[in-house]
């Protein structure tokens, strides 16, 4: 089975969910138009996915690790 080691602390995962909610609200309420609306949806989906999985590929590429003590 493919396993990803978590590199996001719990507080950052909650922050990512909140940010995704704000970005989605901005896209749905008309603050964005055209391509930016789709980019906002993609950003929100990425934030939600990384928050639920607990692994961020961009953080892993720069060597960030989360030590759960």
How many separate structural domains?
1
Task: Give a short account of the largest sheet.
Answer: none
Radius of gyration: 14 Å
| Percentage of residues in helical conformation | 55-70%
The counted number of beta strands is 0
Terminal-residue CA separation: 25 Å
How much β-strand is present in the residues?
under 5%
The assigned structural class equals mainly alpha
Poorly predicted segments: none
| Overall spatial form | elongated
Tell me the series of helices and strands, N- to C-terminal.
Answer: HHH
Count of helical segments?
3
Mean model confidence by pLDDT? 90
Domain Inner membrane protein YgaP-like transmembrane: 5-64
Pfam family, one: YgaP-like_TM
Transmembrane segments: 14-32, 38-63
Keywords: Membrane, Transmembrane, Transmembrane helix
Quick structural summary:
With 69 residues, this protein is mainly alpha-helical. It has helices at 10-28, 35-53, 57-61.
Q: What are the SSEs and their pairings?
A:
Elements: H1 10-28, H2 35-53, H3 57-61
Helix pairs in contact: 1-2
Protein model, in words:
This protein is mostly helical and 69 residues long. It has one domain. The chain is 62% helix and 0% strand. The protein contains three helices and no strands. The two termini are 25 Å apart. The mean pLDDT is 90.
């Amino acid at each position: 089975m493919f396993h990803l080691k978590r590199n996001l602390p719990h507080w950052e995962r909650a922050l990512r969910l909140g940010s995704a909610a704000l970005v989605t609200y901005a896209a749905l309420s008309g603050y964005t138009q055209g391509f930016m609306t789709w980019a906002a949806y993609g950003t929100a989906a990425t934030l939600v996915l990384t928050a639920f999985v607990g692994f961020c590929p961009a953080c892993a590429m720069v060597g960030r690790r989360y030590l759960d003590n």
